[in-house]
Specification:
CATH topology of the largest domain: MetI-like fold
Distance between the termini: 55 Å
CATH class of the largest domain: Mainly Alpha
Number of domains: 2
Structural class: mainly alpha
CATH superfamily of the largest domain: MetI-like
Shape: flat
Helix content: over 70%
Length: 307
């Protein structure tokens, strides 16, 4: 005969008490992180959202008053913001695809050669180099008597412009610098993803007679699809939030600032130079909405391909 052993009431009580104590201890451990999250992240976000519906300036904080959606309406009537939005969109449409393709290509090449660690360091160094230092170096390269124009003159007998001070070439020159500084960072992500691709897939493709380009197109690129989604999303967020590189280069340029104005740079000018904090807050939330919509669209396409 089987004998069922029922836990005593005292034992069940101790078990419940122990579970509660463990849960309480867990909440106490995460309490500092929660306080930091609410005080330094969620709190300012909520406050900025409220401010975006006000006329608010630190030059006259007593004059702050609610104006509804007027800041948002004025944004899309502001020629400076519209030019900044156009520049930022163009910057993202060029930089993100090029840096993604270049990062994947570098990762595939570096993954197949000896001295992999050395090349990782070499290609990653631009990502951790000071923005001011990068701007200074490329300023010497892109000046009228710089290395680029000398090479153009020696090879094609073309005298190039002063790129950072040219209305036509200033923004493309900034794009080149941005690609140079970010491709290595995303290459590291692709290198990590390449290690997870099963070697059996490459062996099966080779047995079927596939060669280098066919293997890359049929095996490597599809297996890196989710990594590519991550890289594109991170690249898009970084492109729409570009500030330091443009700020340093445009600060030393003789061009009108609108030629290289970006959304975050315009936000900085409105918020911290003219102290229009309500208007700048509205600009920040419009930027957030743009990035969110682009991310959801990319996620939608990824899910459709998976299905």
């Amino acid at each position: 005969m089987a004998v069922s052993v029922q836990p005593s009431r005292a034992w069940r009580s101790r078990l419940r008490t122990s579970t509660v104590d463990q849960a309480l201890a867990g909440y106490l451990f995460i309490l500092p992180a929660l306080v930091e999250l609410f005080v330094f992240l969620l709190g300012p976000i909520v406050y900025a959202f409220v401010v975006s519906f006000k006329h608010f300036s630190y030059l006259d904080p007593l004059d702050a008053h609610f104006i509804g959606v007027q800041n948002y309406i004025h944004l899309f009537q502001d020629p400076v913001f519209l030019r900044a939005l156009w520049n930022t969109t163009l910057y993202a449409l060029v930089v993100v695809p090029v840096q993604t393709a270049l990062a994947m290509l570098l990762a595939v090449v570096v993954n197949r050669i000896r001295g992999k660690t050395v090349f990782r360091i070499i290609y990653y160094l631009p990502s951790i180099t000071s923005t001011v230092g990068v701007a200074v170096i490329f300023g010497f390269l892109f000046q009228p008597n710089g290395l680029l124009n000398r090479l153009l003159f020696l090879t094609l007998h073309i005298q190039g412009p002063d790129y950072f001070n040219s209305p036509m070439f200033a923004l493309p020159a900034i794009m080149v610098v941005a690609i140079w500084t970010t491709a290595g960072q995303f290459m590291i992500i692709y290198l990590a993803a390449l290690q997870d691709i099963p070697t059996e897939l490459y062996e099966a493709a080779a047995i079927d007679g596939a060669k280098g380009w066919q293997i890359l197109r049929s095996v490597t690129v599809p297996m890196l699809k989710r990594t590519t989604f991550l890289v594109v999303v991170l690249g898009m967020i970084g492109a729409f939030q570009v500030f330091d590189l443009v700020y340093v280069i445009s600060g030393n340029s003789s061009l009108p600032q609108q030629d290289t104005m970006t959304v975050v740079l315009d936000l900085f000018e409105k918020g911290f130079r003219t102290m229009q904090m309500g208007y700048a807050s509205a600009m920040g939330f419009v930027l957030f909405a743009i990035i969110l919509v682009l991310t959801l669209i990319q996620q939608l396409f990824l899910g459709r391909e998976d299905s």
